[in-house]
Specification:
The complex is a heterodimer of chains A (469) and B (412).
Chain A lengths: L6 E4 L9 H10 L6 E4 L6 E4 L8 H5 L5 E3 L6 E3 L9 H5 L5 E4 L4 E4 L8 H5 L5 E4 L1 H9 L17 H12 L3 E4 L4 H7 L12 E2 L6 H14 L6 E7 H6 L2 H10 L4 E6 L39 H7 L4 E6 L3 H14 L5 E6 L3 H4 L6 H10 L6 E4 L3 E4 L9 H5 L10 H24 L23 H9 L1
Parallel strand pairs in A: 9-10, 9-11, 11-12, 12-14, 13-14
Antiparallel strand pairs in A: 1-8, 2-3, 4-5, 6-7, 13-15, 15-16
Chain B lengths: L2 E7 L3 H13 L5 E4 L12 H6 L12 H6 L2 E4 L4 E5 L4 E4 L4 E9 L3 E3 L18 H13 L2 E5 L3 H12 L3 E6 L11 H13 L3 E4 L3 E5 L4 E4 L4 E3 L3 E3 L3 E3 L15 E2 L11 E3 L4 E4 L6 E2 L4 H16 L13 E6 L2 E7 L8 E5 L4 E7 L2 E8 L5 H9 L8 H6 L1 H13 L1
Parallel strand pairs in B: 1-2, 1-6, 2-3, 6-17, 8-9, 8-14, 9-10, 16-18
Antiparallel strand pairs in B: 4-5, 5-6, 7-15, 11-12, 12-13, 18-19, 20-21, 21-24, 22-23, 23-24
Helix pairs in contact in B: 1-7, 8-10
Classes of the chains: A alpha/beta (469), B alpha/beta (412).
């Protein structure tokens, strides 16, 4: 498995041209800034010149003195000042102005990512610059055991497979997995002909009883003293928000110690793309068609993760594969919380087939759904309340998101305005909840009113160990 | 008889990039790199810095033996190729050894051209193309008080600067009326020339050498004047090393003729780097552009072709590129920086000299002195033929800033 690298990313839409990044770079490194913000094509728009730490770095290839080298571990292209003869050929190799002459010393200078803690990113007030650590995640978990068979038959570009494989790599073999009817068992995780597609015990409950069955399994494991097992579901939005909701709600109400992951593709996609309770307003589905009389779904989606916060679960969070670092942190917390109470993780999963998105654009759609506040990222605990894990400020217009997606192609301006208004309303409500959240208490408390039988206690550190896997 | 699936003849930038490209696609196929040099790979471009002492012979090596072991490539120094049999797929060495191959890369680079000057054979002169040449020049420089450099190209000027900085009295003789012809226009050259003059280097431009006599090296010019010196450096250009290909059936012109996939006319034979005569970006015809960026690009394409990598791209054509430092100052040029006919030129002399050359609102060349710019960005604007009509005023006024903006946009 090859190495992946962390990288500094730039979101031009968030940059206001303040130049703080350049100032902090200059202060951190001495000399001229090693990145430059330049005016963009339109007034108020800005662009960035910075070393991209290319995978196929021309600057390194054209260097006659061997002064430049791509570090195998960090991926950073390093510059050895003692080997460099100042010929400037590297500046001819770079297409982005990422290595340029620092006039203060008349030598080249380039970004070294400040050894994994870039000063520019820390000083960026708008979030336009980010240090994305998905590369580290890949390196850390890519080598871990994959708990699904190769060749799951998901649609091309579907990120559910990504979610399943990543989540189970992290959770490890100490798990019992329920995959109720939906795309996840449909693509082969429950297996064929008496063999499972998963290397952990897996079962296929009904759409309606997933959380109930998991409750029983957990209670049994507790009874026999096996408190180290992660009892979990990888379920779809239909099985969670609609047909299975009573079971989910009941388990949450009882504080069952379960990790419930809802992979939300906004409909019953594997049975032919019917609408579900989480299908957003205006969406085309096979049961909310677009034609002479109907223009997609006429109701708004229910916000299931917000409903779960009303159950005062131990942990509730939304996540997106567009932001893997965030998803991983939430997986950690959700796993740990599932030893103490109900942990609910809602992961957005655009469906290339049912939403009519090119398979190559699914992760882009994930990012855009977050960046436009269509799917804000937040987490909730019953002791600390709700907090955003990505700022909902400076969001893109929702139009930028829906135009990527075929199921919204027919939207009228009125429908679009409706969606934007609902997105704004939802963020306003979440902000209110985040503002009203009580300050974190000194110690975590057990969920009040938990009726789960108390087995042998697992120490906090042991739970963390399992959570870290 | 030694045999390699991939046989690379030459050991500088083109061959090293071919190696890399081959190994990306075929990690196992047997490979050997033959070189007439005694050392591990190094770049001829580094040599003036060895002469000056800025670098050193042990610091210039681009790869170590561990690299070749890790890449499963036999590195064979002191192996001068003397003939090629494309039917038998075999390369003969000076030592008598014969290497068989399945795919061959000709990357033998270039060697100094020695002009037919009367008496030159009879004196001990220096050239600067190999590490041994650089070490020889550096030691001779220590004992000498004066020097004559024939040729005011990059090698000649670099060496002249080194010699002058070492305290020698230096004269440079150049047939053309300006230094670095082809890379810079007269205004840019003037600035470079005056720097040399200020540092005590005598430039004899527009002059030919008619005779060289020993033993103290007396150089007679075509105006009858005589320069006496105790060190002579011949830097009148280089020529592809193709003598070993005579009679092989490989098509030769000034260099080895290659198509846009770096293939020669012979089956299983590629060529790249200074030895190759490949497409010129501007003219579309085959030309010699002996610089590192073209060697790297060509080497990669050749390596991909040799390994059968389906993701290879055709050569977009070479662009002349020059990044030149003189007495701590900077002169840069790319593309048709000296063009005057049927082009729009915009010159600026504020805080250094800059010359932008456009054709139909598209950049075709840039040069500057004392005003650094992102050479790579300008190269991309030229190569991608980016239409500048929407931002022309901004580009002409602030080319660096606007270039960075355009490439940042292109990237997204």
């Amino acid at each position: 498995m090859g190495a992946a690298f962390d990288s500094i990313t730039f979101k031009a839409s968030l940059c206001d041209g303040c130049g703080d990044c350049m100032t902090s770079c200059s202060e951190a490194k001495g000399g001229e800034a090693r990145l430059s913000i330049v005016p963009g094509a339109k007034a108020g728009a800005f662009e960035l010149a910075i070393c991209r730490q290319c995978g196929d770095p021309k600057c390194v290839q054209v260097c006659p003195s061997g002064a430049l080298d791509k570090h195998a571990g960090s991926g950073v292209i390093g510059w050895a000042s003692d080997k460099c003869v100042d010929c400037l050929l590297c500046t001819a190799g770079c297409a982005y102005g990422g290595i340029a002459v620092d006039a203060s010393v008349s030598r080249v200078a380039k970004c070294d990512q400040c050894e994994g803690d870039p000063a520019c990113v820390k000083s960026c007030p708008t979030g336009a610059l980010e240090f994305r650590k998905a590369g580290s995640i890949f390196n850390e978990y890519g080598g871990k055991e994959d708990l699904f068979v190769p060749g799951l038959s998901g649609c091309q570009g579907c990120n559910s497979e990504l979610i399943m494989r990543h989540a189970m790599r992290k959770i490890g073999r100490n798990a019992v997995l329920a995959t109720p009817p939906g795309c996840i068992p449909g693509m082969g995780s429950v297996g064929y002909n008496g063999k499972t597609g998963t290397k952990v015990p897996v079962f296929h409950p009904l759409l309606t009883n997933t959380a109930s069955m998991l409750s029983g399994i957990r209670r049994y494991y507790d009874k026999v003293g096996r408190k180290d097992i992660v009892v979990m579901a990888l379920a779809g939005d239909g099985g969670t928000a609609d047909c299975g909701f009573h079971a989910v709600s009941g388990a949450a109400e009882r504080g069952e110690k379960i990790l419930y992951v809802c992979v939300d593709n906004e409909g019953y996609m594997n049975t032919g793309m019917q609408r579900s309770g989480t299908t957003p307003y205006g969406s085309w589905t096979s049961t909310t068609p677009v034609g002479e009389h109907m223009q997609g779904k006429t109701q708004d989606a229910k916000n299931l993760p917000m409903i779960m916060t009303a159950h005062r679960c131990r942990y509730v969070a939304t996540a997106s594969t567009g932001y893997m670092e965030d998803l991983y942190e939430k997986l950690d917390r959700a796993i740990e919380a599932s030893f103490e109470g109900f942990a609910y993780l809602h992961i957005y999963s655009p469906c290339p087939t049912g939403w009519r998105i090119p398979s190559s654009k699914v992760i882009d759609a994930c990012r855009m759904s977050v960046d436009s506040n269509f799917n804000p990222l937040w987490e909730y605990t019953n002791s600390t309340g709700l907090r955003f894990t990505r700022s909902p400020d400076n969001a893109l217009p929702v139009a930028a998101y829906v135009k990527m997606i075929g199921k919204y192609r027919h939207l009228s301006p009125d429908q679009l305005a409706h969606i934007q208004a609902k997105v704004d309303e939802q963020v306003a409500l979440l902000k209110l909840m985040a503002a009203e959240a009580p300050p974190p208490p000194a110690a975590h408390r057990a969920p009040a009113g938990s009726s789960t039988p108390a087995g042998a206690d697992l120490s906090q550190s042991a739970r963390r160990e399992i959570a870290r896997n | 008889m030694p045999e390699a699936k991939y046989l690379l003849v030459g050991s500088s930038h083109a061959a090293l990039e071919a190696l890399r490209a081959i190994r990306l696609h075929d990690p196992d196929g047997s490979m050997a790199m033959l070189t007439r040099d005694a050392a591990l790979p190094y770049s001829p471009t580094i040599l003036p810095y060895v002469v000056s002492g800025r670098s050193a012979p042990d610091k210039v090596l681009l790869r170590d033996p561990g690299f070749f072991a890790a890449n499963n490539c036999a590195y064979v120094p002191n192996a001068r190729a003397v003939s090629l049999d494309t039917k038998a797929k075999a390369v003969s060495l000076e030592t008598g050894e014969v290497w068989r191959y399945q795919s061959l890369l000709i990357a033998t680079g270039a060697a100094p051209v020695i002009p037919p000057v009367k008496g030159l054979d009879g004196v001990g002169y220096h050239v600067l193309r190999t590490l041994a040449d650089a070490q020889g020049l550096r030691s001779a420089m220590g004992a000498a008080k004066s020097a004559v450099v024939l040729g005011a190209g990059l090698v000649g000027l670099h060496a002249a600067e080194n010699l002058a900085e070492a305290g020698l009295k230096v004269s440079v003789v150049e047939m053309q009326t300006h230094v670095l012809p082809g890379y810079f226009d007269a205004k840019a050259s003037d600035r470079i020339e005056s720097a040399f003059t200020q540092h005590g280097v005598e430039l004899r431009l527009g002059r030919k050498v008619v005779e060289v006599a020993g033993p103290d090296c007396r150089v007679t010019l075509d105006d009858g004047s005589v320069i006496a010196a105790d060190l002579l450096l011949v830097a009148t250009g280089v020529r592809p090393v193709t003598d070993w290909l005579e009679g092989s059936g490989i098509s030769l012109d000034k260099g080895v003729l290659v198509d846009d996939l770096m293939r020669t006319n012979a089956d299983g034979v590629w060529a790249a780097g200074d030895v190759a005569q490949a497409t010129d970006f501007h003219s579309g015809s085959q030309a010699l552009i002996g610089i590192i960026p073209t060697a790297v690009e060509q080497g990669k394409i050749a390596g991909q072709g040799m390994a059968g990598d389906p993701y290879r791209k055709e050569y977009p054509g070479g662009l002349a590129v020059n990044t030149y430092r003189f007495f701590g100052r900077v002169a840069l040029s790319i593309g048709r920086a000296t063009a005057t006919e049927a082009v729009e030129t915009v010159e600026s002399e504020e805080g250094g000299y800059r010359r932008l050359v456009l054709e139909g609102n598209r950049l075709v060349g840039v040069a500057s002195v004392d005003q650094p710019f992102d050479v790579g960005i300008m190269g991309e604007l030229i190569r991608r033929r980016i239409d500048l009509s929407q931002c022309k005023d901004a580009f002409l006024a602030r080319p660096v800033e606007t270039g960075r903006r355009l490439m940042s946009e292109q990237w997204r």
